[in-house]
Amino acid sequence: MKTVNKICQILSIVLGAAALVLFFTSFATIISGGNEVSAVGAQLAFGSKVKVAGEAVGLAKSADILFCFILTAISLIMSIFSFKAKGLRYSAPVVGLISAVYMLVIALSSPWKFVDARPLTDVTKIEYAPFVLITAIVLFLFAAAAIAYLLIDDYLEVSASKGDKLTIPKRFIRFLRDYKSEIKKIVWPGFKDVLKNTGIVIVMCVIIGAFIWLLDFGLGKLLELILGA
Questions:
Q1: Segment 177-199 mean pLDDT
Q2: Which of 10, 23, 43, 196 could link 39 by a cystine bridge, Cβ 3.0 to 4.6 Å?
Q3: Per-residue pLDDT tens digits for 8-37
Q4: What one-character-per-residue DSSP string does the chain give?
Q5: This prediction's pTM
Q6: Domains of the chain: which residue ranges?
């Protein structure tokens, strides 16, 4: 089991690194003024320069792709440091999963929504390269490997504690049961109580609002007198 745990941890790091590397592959092809421009993910994310008809043009930053790139880098760093900091076991799969979902949304949506082609002019066509969808798939695999590592490592810790700790699924089930029992203790007010309390709140809001208005009006008049003098 420990061997499988290490394999999952190393696999998550490898997949995270692979996802980050994929951002340096071709993400989109842009047709501008009859010229075909191929841009890698990092160029779209950071707004690097591309060659158009022999001239260098600086693309605008695509905020959504940049966001996914940053999340991917953060999740990879968390996975690497999870060897030492056990708390990062929880953060890495969460951040990776967010990045994977966001990247999948980008891959399945129209490239016109997420690829910022400015300042290119006369853009007639933008289409994704297959690497956009591949990046999303690799990110999902990374999240799956990170979750597997988390659950297996947690199971090993629980086994070593000899019953002093509970596994994550059991802790989650206990939380739901405690939450359900606390919900049952809530005493909901009747219709008359709700009507009475609502009326009190409305009256107090009107009184406080009137007081603030009168105070503001009076201070305004006083300021006018001072400035007029």
A1: 87
A2: 43
A3: 888 999 999 999 999 999 999 888 888 888
A4: -HHHHHHHHHHHHHHHHHHHHHTTSEEEEEEETTEEEEEEHHHHHHT-EEEETTEEEEPPP-HHHHHHHHHHHHHHHHHHHTTT-TTHHHHHHHHHHHHHHHHHHHHHS-HHHH---TT--SEEEEEE-HHHHHHHHHHHHHHHHHHHHHHHHHHHHHHHHTTSS--HHHHHHHHHHHHHHHHHT-----HHHHHHHHHHHHHHHHHHHHHHHHHHHHHHHHHHHHHH-
A5: 0.74
A6: 2-184, 187-229
